[in-house]
Amino acid sequence: MNFRLGTTSYILPAGLLENARFLANSVQDMELVLFDLEDGQTNIPSAEIVRAMRRIADESDFSYTVHLPLDLKWRDETGNEHQSLKIAQRTISATKDLHPLAYVAHLDGRLVSEWQNETEKKNWQRQALLALEKLADWAGGWEKISLENLEGYPLDYLDAIFLEVPIKRCVDIGHWWLDGHNPLKLLTNGINLERVSVIHIHGISHQGEAHHSLAYQSRVELAEILIYLKTAGYSGVLTLEVFGIEDYQSSLRVIQEILC
User: Fold this and answer.
1) Any residues with CB less than 8 A from the CB of 226 and at least 6 apart, and which?
2) What are the pLDDT digits (tens) for 20-61?
3) Distances (CA, A) of 111 to 13, 108, 124, 188, 248
4) Most-buried pick from 86, 192, 247, 249 (CB within 10 A)?
5) DSSP notation for 9-21
6) Tens digit of each residue's pLDDT (9 = 90 or more) over 212-259
7) DSSP 3-state helix, strand, coil percentages of the chain (rounded to 5)?
8) In terms of Cα–Cα distance, which of 44, 49, 20 is closest to 33?
9) Is 192 in contact with 230 (CB distance < 8 Å)?
10) How far apart are CA 237 and CA 239, in angstroms?
11) How confident is the model at residue 8 (pLDDT cuts 50, 70, 90)?
12) Distance between CA atoms of 150 and 128, rounded to whole angstroms?
């Protein structure tokens, strides 16, 4: 298969470096799921940790993607640069020596459901593009940013962004499942895989919770999706976006059973 299989940095109950060491033996990519809280708690890696993680990548066929901590917004209520952009810049600066394949970003979509007219929609899109332009400049180009779809929003709410700038997509199949969509139908109707750099996949539990083992999903449906990605020549990262060793190992077994 052409795509790189990966998972998150929260498989072991340990830090980024420990997870990278562990995962380099079984997958090809690790998604750094980062946080930077107002009370000072953060897991944005130090330069020393980044150097050690870079060595792991150099010594094996291993890469990184970086999930930015906050949903991006252009301005705060006072008209100043939003905190999400400040943290994004700090994150990109801290991780640039890892040469991430993608920086995965969410847009602040809370206002999408409140659009009353075309003017409000255009204003949201304009501010989103301004925020993303900053991000692309810090990351080294539009192609380094992978914009993720979220659950609970219209399927087309990001379309204008993708038409306006050459940004990449992060397709989250789990979010589609949460909203009751057919991922294979969406992937084969209108999604240009050449614009997709990252795909997140995770199971939905019987309680309707995301980010669980793929063992919860229909094997037939999973096989259709994975075989499509393989035969279509998808060459980005497929991330098992789960958190914990049991969900990871059972998801990995499902993938291997289907593709091997």
Assistant:
1) 255, 258, 259
2) 999 999 999 999 999 999 888 999 999 999 999 999 999 999
3) 35, 8, 8, 29, 34
4) 247
5) S-SSSS-HHHHHH
6) 999 999 999 999 999 999 999 999 999 999 999 999 999 999 999 999
7) 45, 20, 35
8) 44
9) no
10) 6
11) very high
12) 15
Contacts 24+ apart (CB under 8 A), 89-94: 89/134, 89/138, 90/36, 90/44, 91/34, 91/36, 91/44, 91/66, 92/66, 92/68, 92/135, 92/138, 92/139, 93/138, 94/44, 94/45, 94/46, 94/47, 94/50
Enumerate residues 6+ apart whose C-beta is below 8 A from 67: 31, 32, 33, 34, 104
**φ, ψ for residue 169, nearest 5 deg:** -100, 145
* Sign of the Cα pseudo-torsion (67, 70, 71, 74, in order): negative
Q: What region, left, alpha or beta, does residue 244 occupy, with left being phi > 0 and alpha being psi -120 to 50 degrees?
A: left
Per residue in 96-125, pLDDT (tens digit) is 999 999 999 999 876 676 666 788 888 889
Q: Residue 135: its pLDDT value, please?
A: 97
Round the CA-based radius of gyration of the chain to a whole number and report it: 18
